[in-house]
Sequence to fold (454 residues):
Amino acid sequence: MTYFGLIANNLLEGTKVTLTVFALTWVFSIPLGLLLAMLKNTNLKLIGRLLDFYTWIIRGTPLLLQLFFVVYGLPILFGEFFLMPEILGAVITFIINYTAYFIEIFRGGMNAIAKNQYEAASVLSLSKSQTFIYVVLPQTIKKTLPSIANETITLIKDTALVSAVAISDLMRNTKDTVARDFRVEAYFLAAIIYLVLTYAIVYLFKKNEKKKAFYR
Amino acid sequence: MTILSVEKLTKKFKETLAVKDVSFDVLSGEIVSIIGPSGSGKSTLLRLISNLEKKDFGTIRLFDVEVTSSSAAIKRDLYKKVQFIFQDFGLFDHLSVKDNLLLAPLKVFKQDKKTVLTEMAYWLNEFNLSDKVDSYPSELSGGQKQRVAILRALLTNPKLILFDEPTSALDRESVNDLTNIIMKLKNSGMTILIVTHDMSFAKAVSQRLLFMENSSIIFNEYIDNINDQMERLNKYLG
Fold:
């Protein structure tokens, strides 16, 4: 077996962990971001302030610091209750972090919807929830698709940070392989795997964008 | 029967008086045009009537019910019978013509789908839009968009239709189409209130003209009387 064959297994095991962190973060932070963006756009001032504070903290500090804080800091501060498997801590941190970015993306998308769309809905007697479901949501998704694609690609690459809290993801396994064998092929293989993943995301989003390109 | 009755309606935007002490009635089956220069407050007046703006003073009665003092549920029911055709048409950009037309009848008015589809097909044909049913608004001309907007309003079975500057985004041919459509609606007994600065269009379609200047209505007269007076004036001037 070639050297690539020998290390591939180890790296693919790591890829599974990478994809787990990625998928869980994506699946939870997008609906959460959408929900909180809706709340932020209501007239509830207190909620708006709290969300402002939340996005300010999260977007203003490094994800790596947040990761250390949740995985290592919380148990020290609040005791064993917060001692959890690293992977769980990492996924929670990623969801909290990415939700903050998605809130801003969705809020921008909602604010970009023309006033006449809301007025037309009102004249047609659509209720607030019907206006959201049939008018605001589909237009927001269409408008935010490119930003969501960018954020998704960043997410794939950001997952490499979990290697810093002893999680055996693609990055961690690559680093260990290089350290063990003192050969750099693993770096190249890891790069190829990351490229395949990001390319797949770009491809899927492009396809979806084309499907939604029927209106401007 | 009085469909719409407006009394001493007033609206301020900060310090600017947009609509001042406006009173008038629209009777069932009437076509009334409000004309006047831009900035005279006529579009604001129409938006007040359609509940897109909140009034400061005065009363609006729809179908003999005072609107503002009514409960939210009654208000909602009243406005289900009033449609507004926007100057920029207000079609939903992400929906096809068909979905634009069906959204309110099916989701809000809970009409029977088969009946709506039949009615839709009839009007699409009437409005020369049958081949556009799967198009999106961005693929339509101004006149086509407007006809879709009118049709979307008609499918909710309104008793009163408000038009905001309907000719401003149209070429001459589309204005003629619009005139024909409004005459068709008139023949079916529809009550229509139009805001426009296009005098020849207003004269062609309406029975009565209201002239608005500096936020007030300064003139309210039936077209026939206006024509009589013009004739007399012309005779007098030789």
Q: What stands out?
A: Chain B has a mean pLDDT of 90. Chain B touches chain A at residues 50-52, 76, 79-80, 82-84, 86, 88, 90-94, 103-104, 107-109, 136-138, 152, 156 (CB under 8 Å). Chain B is about 40% helix and 25% strand.
